[in-house]
Amino acid sequence: MARLFNAYVVVDWSAAAKPTTGADSVWIGVLKRDVRFRFAFEAHNPATRAEAEALIGAILDDRAKRRERTLLGFDFALGLPRGLASRLALTETPPWRAVWTQIDKMVKDRKDNANNRFGAASEINRRLTGGPFPFWGCPPKDALTTLQPKRQRDHGPDDLPEYRYAEEAAKGAASVWKLYYNGSVGGQTLLGIPVARRLAEARGDGLKVWPFETGWKTLGEADLEGVDAVMAEVWPSLIKPTVQPGDVKDLAQVRSLAEHFARLDEQGKLGALFGPQAPVTDAVRATVESEEGWILGAG
Length: 299
Hints:
Number of helices: 9
Number of strands: 6
Order of helices and strands: EEEHEHHHHHEEHHH
Strand content: 5-15%
Shape: globular
């Protein structure tokens, strides 16, 4: 059975505000064939997000030139909770693309990693509620009227949901509204979506963003004809990493997840992960495909 992909790239993103390497920085794991056509793993630990973006782009373009299809997994949310685009009165369609465009306009991320993620989240809060909700979490020195270090209240029936459907299925996954502290994904999401947008736009139809541009369904070779890369949201904690001597946790996670996807692909089982892992309603499917996205393998 033919593989869907020839290379597997897993990225552990970072919201660091200065250049940094080692633990809690950007790690890029690449599993691809070597000169003897055997799979080999290599890891990259760029100090800044700008360096990481350039490197990921180069990897994708190199694989495309070799006619090798790449699975690119980012460990931040590619969609935000349902209703955000509507509440912000964004008119671009579909909603996920409108949110990507809006975040890209608001977020400033310099080449030295200095960024305004807390300010951008604060402004979104102001537009949504006029107060420090739903985004929360920041160092006390970065607190603003519309963004506070601690969560101010629970989500009510008239609020945007705290969790996407994907996070409800992936038990233990943090809410995207959480910007700071251990296990947070919101800061990485605000800084990651502009990068994902640029990588996707630069490659046009050669790169598909799952599930928004592929559908939330089992994928086969016919679905990916002419596609050089598929971008997906991943969550390394879905599997237990294999830690080798000297590994930092982030490195072990990107390597283990890349190897996990490669094994499933070899067995002809990876394609099914791109569809629901349990029965879903038409409403949930429509929300996942147009707005929230999904975590590959969740559920």
